[in-house]
């Protein structure tokens, strides 16, 4: 569900920002990008609070019982607390995709998977951290990816978009509704797939 929230944000960002880029309206594209980043940060904080406070109840809702619930809580404890590292990269992929930069998105996604695969056995078996180690390796790999994306956007500044606070402008209710409707649609679709599986 957390990944679905990040993916849904990414879909909404891609849809709205790419339309402004297509219209060659760079000011509005940057403005929408800034709003998207802020929306993602807010969503990350809300997700962290909700999933951390109601972790046990949420895991029980999806069938967590006995030893399975115990393992899920070990994994979920750090995963939920660090959910900003799950939501942010998935959402920021949308910024890169909206400007047509699909290669670098693919590179960091592959890097994330490779780092996770390397760290998993080290944390789980060598350091004997169990499920906590599995969650930690996932968070570390996503944190590395987030740092790389932030470096591209805010330090190297080699992206088309410039989502800085200097480009923040008030936006119309219509734009907010557009972003949120795409996000809501994508999230409901992801949630439906999750529940079916």
Summarize the structure.
The chain has helices spanning 2-22, 26-53, 55-61, 66-81, 84-98, 102-126, 130-156, 173-196.
Radius of gyration: 18 Å
Order of helices and strands: HHHHHHHH
Portion in beta strands? under 5%
Number of strands: 0
Total number of helical segments?
8
Oligomeric state as shown: single chain
Low-confidence stretches: none
What is the helical fraction, as a range of percent? over 70%
Q: Look at the structure and give the mean pLDDT.
A: 87
- Label the structural class: mainly alpha
Instruction: Give the N-terminus to C-terminus distance in angstroms.
Output: 12 Å
Reported for the largest beta sheet, the result is:
none
In one word, what is the shape? globular
How are the SSEs ordered, and which strands pair?
Layout: H1 2-22, H2 26-53, H3 55-61, H4 66-81, H5 84-98, H6 102-126, H7 130-156, H8 173-196
């Amino acid at each position: 569900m957390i990944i679905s929230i990040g993916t849904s944000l990414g879909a909404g960002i891609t849809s709205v920002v790419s339309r402004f880029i297509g219209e060659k309206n760079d000011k509005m594209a940057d403005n929408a990008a800034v709003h998207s980043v802020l929306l993602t940060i807010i969503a990350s904080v809300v997700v962290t609070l909700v999933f951390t406070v109601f972790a046990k109840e949420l895991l029980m809702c999806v069938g967590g019982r006995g030893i399975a619930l115990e393992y899920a809580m070990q994994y979920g404890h750090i995963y939920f607390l660090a959910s900003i590292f799950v939501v942010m990269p998935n959402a920021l992929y949308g910024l890169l995709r909206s400007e047509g930069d699909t290669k670098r998105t693919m590179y960091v996604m592959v890097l994330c998977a490779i780092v996770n695969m390397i760290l998993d056995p080290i944390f789980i078996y060598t350091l004997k951290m169990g499920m906590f180690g599995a969650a930690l390796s996932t968070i570390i790999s996503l944190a590395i990816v987030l740092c790389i994306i932030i470096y591209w956007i805010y330090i190297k500044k080699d992206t088309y978009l410039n989502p800085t606070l200097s480009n923040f402008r008030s936006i119309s209710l219509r734009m907010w509704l557009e972003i949120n409707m795409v996000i809501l649609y994508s999230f409901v679709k992801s949630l439906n797939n999750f529940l079916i599986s």
